[in-house]
Amino acid sequence: MPVVSMKELLETGVHFGHRTRKWNPLMKPYIFTERNRIHIIDLQRTLEALENAYALVRDTVADNGRVLFVGTKRQAQETIESEAQRCGMPYVNMRWLGGTLTNWRTIHSRIEELESLERRRDSGEFEHLTKKEALLKQRKIDRLNERLGGIREMHRLPDLLFVVDVRREETAVHEANLLKIPVVALVDTNCDPRGIDYIIPSNDDAIRAIKLLTGKIADAVLEGMELRKDDDLEEVDFEAGEPEVVVEMTDDQLLGEATLAKLKSGDYDVEGEKAGGKTADKPAQEEPASPKGEGAAAEEPAEPKAEAKAEAKAEAEADSKPEDAETPEKTEHKEA
């Protein structure tokens, strides 16, 4: 299903370009014809470009990207503000401050100053100032809000720019090109399309045309946010199904403090018996008497006797040997 119908484009006047004498030759591929010295935009090219831009914005937001809406001309100010707020994206609709992108660190410091002044005002600190000082502080807050109010929630550079009237917003497009930020823009027949990554040939002066196309870009942002939520839910479900990791425990942790205390004191051994040679609580079962058992019991005391006899025999053999046996060397010495 197309993002927008051809009928809606015709009803809102998207196809009307500028007078032929004001045209930019680089926009010739997007011009269908001319009528009453006014160029007519090829709406088939507009539909294709809008489809591509819609998919780009949706995928960018689904990947946690942010889109900055830019449109400072009178016909676009209200639409840019309302549609950007509807989809929760930053916007610039009053005046583009030079360096908003290329000098983001300074711009962000001004946003922090605005928030600091508002906190001081809300805490009642302005009540201790003179009327003139308090009035000057309030005027500064109003001025910063007018210029930075739309980007005060933008804590980093945007991932994509959506621009209405690239001829008027030339500075914003140039800064985005320097930082390699893709630009999606409504480009009329009098504009230079160079520097625009995704051209949407359109009437950028009619309020209804601006509202229609900007609303579709905002719808793409909302759809991307829904995809982002679905991905988060899938990750949560996957994590819930993962097996629980069992933490390895040492032997001391498994036995417990009470058992360890008994082992150290000697009241309890590993085999479950009481210390001191006493058996456990269970009484030992008596084995049935058998002749073999009696013989084995009788043979037990014989083992020490056999060992004693062997020792006595060894001593007797040692005594029988001549203790004073002389070596051949001693014998020769005596004969001499």
Put the structure in a nutshell:
This protein is an alpha/beta fold and 336 residues long. Among the domains are: 6-99 and 157-233, Rossmann fold; 102-155, Helix Hairpins.
Structural topology:
Blueprint: H1 6-12, E1 16-19, E2 31-35, E3 38-41, H2 43-62, E4 67-70, H3 74-87, E5 91-92, H4 104-122, H5 131-148, E6 160-164, H6 170-178, E7 183-187, E8 198-201, H7 207-240, H8 251-255, H9 257-265, H10 291-299, H11 302-320, H12 328-335
Parallel strand pairs: 4-5, 4-6, 6-7, 7-8
Antiparallel strand pairs: 1-3, 2-3
Helix pairs in contact: 2-7, 3-7, 4-5
Protein model, in words:
- Residues 272-303 and 322-336 have low confidence and may be disordered.
- Among the domains are: 6-99 and 157-233, Glucose-6-phosphate isomerase like protein, domain 1 (Rossmann fold, 3-Layer(aba) Sandwich), CATH 3.40.50; 102-155, Helix Hairpins, CATH 1.10.287.
- 51% of the residues lie in helices and 10% in strands.
- α4 crosses α5 (131-148).
- It has 336 residues and is an alpha/beta fold.
- The strands form two sheets. Strands 5-4-6-7-8 form a five-stranded parallel β-sheet, sandwiched between helices.
- The chain has helices spanning 6-12, 43-62, 74-87, 104-122, 131-148, 170-178, 207-240, 251-255, 257-265, 291-299, 302-320, 328-335; strands at 16-19, 31-35, 38-41, 67-70, 91-92, 160-164, 183-187, 198-201.
- The chain is elongated and about 140 Å long.
